[in-house]
Amino acid sequence: MARSAANPAVQADGSGAQSRVRDLEPLFAPKSIAVIGASRTPGTVGSAIPSNLILGGYTGVVYPVNPKAKSIMGARCVPSISAIDDHVDLAVIILPAPAVEKAVLEAADHGTKHLVIISAGFKEVGEEGAQRERRIKAIADERGLSIIGPNCLGVINTAPDVRMNASFGRDMPRPGRIGLISQSGALCTALLDYAKGHHLGFSRFISFGNKCDVTEVDLLRCLASDRNTDIIMMYVEDISDGQAFVNAAYEITHGSNPKPILAIKTGRTPQGAAAAASHTGSMAGSDEVYDAIMTQAGVIRVESVEDLFDLAEIFSDPVMPAGRRTAIITNAGGPGIMATDACIRYGLQLSKFADYTIKSLKFQMPPTSSLKNPVDVIGDARHDRYRAALDAIAADENVDNIMVLVTPQSMTPDAEIGQVVGEAKGFCTKPIVACMMGAADVAEGVEKLHSYKVPTYPFPENAMRALAAKARFAEWTRTPHSRFVQYDADKAAVEKLLEEEFKAGRKQIVELKALEVFRHYGFSLVPYALAKTADEAVAAAAKIGYPVVMKISGPKILHKTDVGGVKLNLRDEASVRAAFDGMIASVKDKMGDDVEIWGVLIQKMLPPGKETILGMSRDERFGPLIMFGLGGIYTEALKDVSFRLAPIRENSAYVMVRSIRSYKLLEGVRGEPPSDVPAIADALCRLSQLVTEHPRIKELDINPLIVYPQGKGVVVADARIILSEK
Amino acid sequence: MARSAANPAVQADGSGAQSRVRDLEPLFAPKSIAVIGASRTPGTVGSAIPSNLILGGYTGVVYPVNPKAKSIMGARCVPSISAIDDHVDLAVIILPAPAVEKAVLEAADHGTKHLVIISAGFKEVGEEGAQRERRIKAIADERGLSIIGPNCLGVINTAPDVRMNASFGRDMPRPGRIGLISQSGALCTALLDYAKGHHLGFSRFISFGNKCDVTEVDLLRCLASDRNTDIIMMYVEDISDGQAFVNAAYEITHGSNPKPILAIKTGRTPQGAAAAASHTGSMAGSDEVYDAIMTQAGVIRVESVEDLFDLAEIFSDPVMPAGRRTAIITNAGGPGIMATDACIRYGLQLSKFADYTIKSLKFQMPPTSSLKNPVDVIGDARHDRYRAALDAIAADENVDNIMVLVTPQSMTPDAEIGQVVGEAKGFCTKPIVACMMGAADVAEGVEKLHSYKVPTYPFPENAMRALAAKARFAEWTRTPHSRFVQYDADKAAVEKLLEEEFKAGRKQIVELKALEVFRHYGFSLVPYALAKTADEAVAAAAKIGYPVVMKISGPKILHKTDVGGVKLNLRDEASVRAAFDGMIASVKDKMGDDVEIWGVLIQKMLPPGKETILGMSRDERFGPLIMFGLGGIYTEALKDVSFRLAPIRENSAYVMVRSIRSYKLLEGVRGEPPSDVPAIADALCRLSQLVTEHPRIKELDINPLIVYPQGKGVVVADARIILSEK
Q: Which end of chain B, N or C, is more open, meaning fewer C-beta atoms within 10 Å of its C-beta?
């Protein structure tokens, strides 16, 4: 089902194998729709869909398919799609599950390429349903169909030249700039109902259910190219193809016309994931993986429906902030402090006003006003005072965002203040958000703010959280397009080496071979040589420089220490010579005289540095997942690690390093110099290229990667590579 | 102003010096009120207060005081309070700030003991106002008055036998069970307005402004004893007396009739605190201190006004949960997963149903229903199916909480479902919360739920977060009343020692004396002895056992290592003898022959263990603040520490240890045995008693306290005590 997740055919430029980009436009702007399973019985889905199409003002022609009825909603019924003497752009199927396969085939025979299968009774009900679903997917692939569903609510397009409500939701949503895709149909109906109370409208709406064919990635691309959609909302329980999702979402959020993607991904917790499995029959990945994927792709992951609407409200205003510096205008001290707290908590900054702003405020505000940020216009402020404060602050070059806070006091003219803020929105090039605290007492003011399309919140915390998310997204869109670093690596040599190890049946590669793999990809390694005799060992040690470490090397010798095959800190020729002979003897003694020995690995003894761990584990659904953490207890006990899907961009490598909690230890504490973070990032990018180019590598640990102070680099001290069994 | 924070007179039982417990009942149920500064001018505060009193249905008599008007709202005016021929229980003062002092004196002369000063122009406007405020406080103390304010909105009591609205808020709140106290007046008006939309009512309402006399602690005690108040909401920007607050709040939340305290404490962040200072002229403590105080006192600290109302909603239902096991009933899979995620995220657990419950559900639900938790009654469920599910689950002994989730689907009868849930609330002994997702489509259902007083939320996340807070509070109230441990310590000896050090002008106490202090309080110390000669040193070492550590000791020798005064790991008599002579010579060489030397400290060389840090720093406002953390980078670089105000209860000591992020390292990782946490808790309690009994100690660090495996104890390895300069 996943089209490229575990697919080895990733391009050398790291962009990943592209999924087929589907043209779904005929599905959203069909000239003709057949409703297969349309019904005259009120209260049924078969009745709701033709009714929603016709009452919703659909601009095309509806063909109800029902062999028993003559007409539905005044439209003449046909007994089957084959009886329609017209090309059918879209077929909506509402039949019982066992009858769906035949209907799909008939639609395909009739030349219809786009289908929405509303019917339930597939993957979500067990193996029999899953088989049914696989057969339908096979037909889609063979006949080149695009199918949404099964087990979904339908699709809606509010564009005035289409006005298609091919869903069984209660009514047509208000037209607007939000495109919504959802794996859960019930949530869609709730979201549409909430939206009514939020003055928010939708462009397109797709409930995609079991996504047997068209996936969230196809739908994201479709909304990205829709000129009526500015904001994408999505609800997903699992992502079919992590790699494709990251690529598509990154393009959408970071392209020339970036659109924010607000996502609820449920099944965050182990228990939640179990519920997801029983609901959609799909296996959800672990939550860390999803967090990593979302961050990497620039997707804004939200925790709740409330956050979803709070963010939709702020992103509905197209003005993007230039930075995080925020000014607060308030008519009350306490709420001003609450807004200040929230400002800092969510990662914004309080603006420090320019002198000219303070002078201007001083001239116009009463003497007891606080002229620092937050500006307190005092409880008796009328709209003129808000206007003066807005004028002054809008012109301040130290201000990126403006929040206007109004508490209803005895004489507060909330409607007039709403008007003033709305007018300011007309001339101000900075985002303005408003918070009118209260309910009935500020209702008129809130109404006025909505009419001017000023993002408006009842609580200062929600307003600040939304503003902060917008500021972060603005920064994301401004981040230079970070490239995938492409190193000049000897891919063929590694391929050959892995092939040989695999053929020899060695699932875990011994250190000597692992070092070779890393050498071919330009990792910084501890200087080493393989010595077959004591004389060679002495010569190698002299060349490498004392002190040295010696380790036995042979194709089957995995636990070197246990057989006396490791000696540390050897400081002269005599010790090396003695160690060589002693080691060979010990290993033969423990493993038998016929044990195959390649020789003894002579390595430079490393000076101490900070220990870090770089790892990769290949996920069946998502592909290679790269991990970074500090060595020892930080990774093992405190689970303080960061993840990204490979291939990673250069920026992502830096973000991975910086986003562990114990990053401070790499910055240098107690007077230590900072560690060489660029060298770690370089190693992460090399690792990314290595595992992307060699799908045969199933798991990999560099443990430890020793990190030295800034400018002194990193060294792979030990590593483990495990090959796929396939 | 703070009555006992920095007050050394803390009782030996650790309960702290009690503030005078004020009887504020006459203030809240006065038979007569003088409104000094009443006015006929509409739109003024002087007009709003008599108007609110009279139109609000106040049951007593109102005396407007205004020398220029004949009557206000039909009530005859008097020129001054002295002209009233009646006892005046409460005087409300609305005069300009400079006139307030005289009015307070006149009221006192007239026998009035309770005053509310609405007027602004005091501490919040600078030094002149602060002086005015101090003079008024002096009058209050001298004449035994209780004063609320200045700079406040007033007070309200909705009790039917009082019905007093002595505030200038817009109108009388609906009567209810919430008592609200707030440092910000403007926030109060907003809160009252929000409350209208939330079906919530208030018992008492106090805006306490600058709290020159009556503080949040007095008001908490007052609401605690009010039989009309079940829930306390508070908004504070600073707490005047941390110790008194902890004691009062602990009694209220953990007594025989516990009441939840929901608190917004602003000025969380450095920037927020700065705004607080400019607003109320008060210095706010650091946020960690406030978090510690709130946790210690059982106060539920919330981040936002929204959370405040969400929690008020759930606590309005008096049914308390027996545990965290939660059942979810839903008519849609997706929202069920969202609720499950939230359940786990906020620390609740999913119930595992008993077999009889599953059997009962199987019998009554359609075959495609999920009978596991969450129970999916399927999208076409009508109220009868909800009723059957509720009946089965309410009887399950594995269920502590029930959440009913409803999404509006085409046939969902929301009003009937609301009715069924409301009826279930009548017989169910477990908390039930409802979440109807949507707005217009579920309005009738929500109304029905409100009418049955079922806590109801629009989003599943808010519902779960509220439920989780209630479950935690229920656990807190059930925790056995943990005592302050009282050790048999030699308080007098320590007092004498500290006195001597202080008199000798030694601000930092040398190690030998610090060890004596700890010995008197029964801390586990490394065995030590002071040797004055080499022979004594050898004898002491033999008695203590090799290997030993030797450290020079003298009243002025603070930096022992710098003067060659420390030798480690001495393993025999000869080394000890040589070290003794060498050390004396080296110290005299570096510090001069006349340096005072007490001798050489001989200590047992400690086996390695885990290093922890115990500390205390005395805060001017809050008293002794105790800190715990792991040694080295964990405390210094990662700031991973926990705080509590001393005196601490035994439970708190355990919670302190468990609440650091790196606690896992004490549980034992990589096959290590767990550390001796009870011994750490014991040391924390001893430290608590030491610093409580000796206010002369300003700062103290035990760094490190070496911790051994469970049962093997802890040892104070090094310590530093700094005395107060007073």
A: C
A131 belongs to a structural domain: yes
**How many other C-beta atoms lie within 10 A of the C-beta of residue B407?**
30
CATH of the domain at A76: 3.40.50.720
User: How many whole angstroms separate alpha carbon B573 and alpha carbon A510?
Assistant: 52
- Same domain (yes/no): A675, A704: yes
Of A13-22, B32-41, B587-596, the poorest mean pLDDT is in A13-22
Prior bond of A260 cis (ω within 30°): no
For chain B, what is the mean pLDDT?
A: 89
Question: Are residues B73 and B116 both part of a single domain?
Answer: yes
Could you give the CA distance from residue B498 to residue B61 in angstroms, rounded to a whole number? 60
Residues A324-345: pLDDT tens digits?
999 999 999 899 999 999 999 9
Q: Please identify among residues 653-682 of chain B the ones whose CB lies closer than 8 Å to any CB of chain A.
A: 661-662, 664-665, 669-670
pLDDT band, very low/low/confident/very high, at B18 (cuts 50, 70, 90): very low
* A520 inside domain: no
| B111 and B95 in a common domain | yes
Inter-chain residue contact B407 with A190, CB threshold 8 Å: yes
B547 and B425 belong to one structural domain = no
User: CB under 8 Å to A432, separation ≥6 — which residues?
Assistant: A390, A401, A402, A403, A404, A421, A424, A425, A454, A455
Residue B402 reports pLDDT greater than 70:
yes
Q: Residues of chain A with pLDDT > 90: what percent?
A: 66
**In this model, does residue B106 exceed pLDDT 90?**
yes
Query: Which of B462, B468, B469 is closest to B436 using CA atoms?
Result: B462
Domain boundary at B406, B432, B451, which? Answer: B451
Whether the CB of A357 is below 8 Å from some CB of chain B: the reply is: no
pLDDT of res. B441: 86
- What are the pLDDT digits (tens) for A671-713? 789 999 999 999 999 999 999 999 999 888 888 899 999 999 9
Chain B residues in contact with A345 (beta carbon < 8 A): 268-269, 303
Residues across chain B: 726
Euclidean distance between CA atoms B702 and B704, whole angstroms: 6
Count up the domains in chain A and report the number.
5
Q: Would an 8 Å CB–CB cutoff place A215 in contact with chain B?
A: no
Task: Examine the fold and report which residue of A539, A570, A604 is the final residue of a domain before the chain moves on.
Answer: A604
Q: Determine the pLDDT at residue B283.
A: 29
Distance CA A381, CA A386 (A): 7
Rounded to two decimals, the ipTM of the complex is: 0.84
Residue B618: inside a domain: yes
Task: Specify whether the CB–CB gap between B520 and B487 falls below 8 A.
Answer: no
Tell me the C-alpha distance between A297 and A224, whole Å.
14
Least confident of A137-141, A563-567, A644-648, B272-276: B272-276
Cβ of B332 and A186 within 8 Å? yes
Give a yes or no: residue B710 inside a domain: yes
B190 chain-A contacts, CB cut-off 8 A? 335, 407-408, 437-438
d(CA B361, CA A266): 26
Alpha carbon of residue B351 to chain centroid? 31
- DSSP states of A517-545: HHHHTT--B--EEEESSHHHHHHHHHHH-
Q: What is the span of the domain harbouring residue A694?
A: 483-509+608-726
Q: Which helix (H) or strand (E) holds B338?
A: helix B333-345
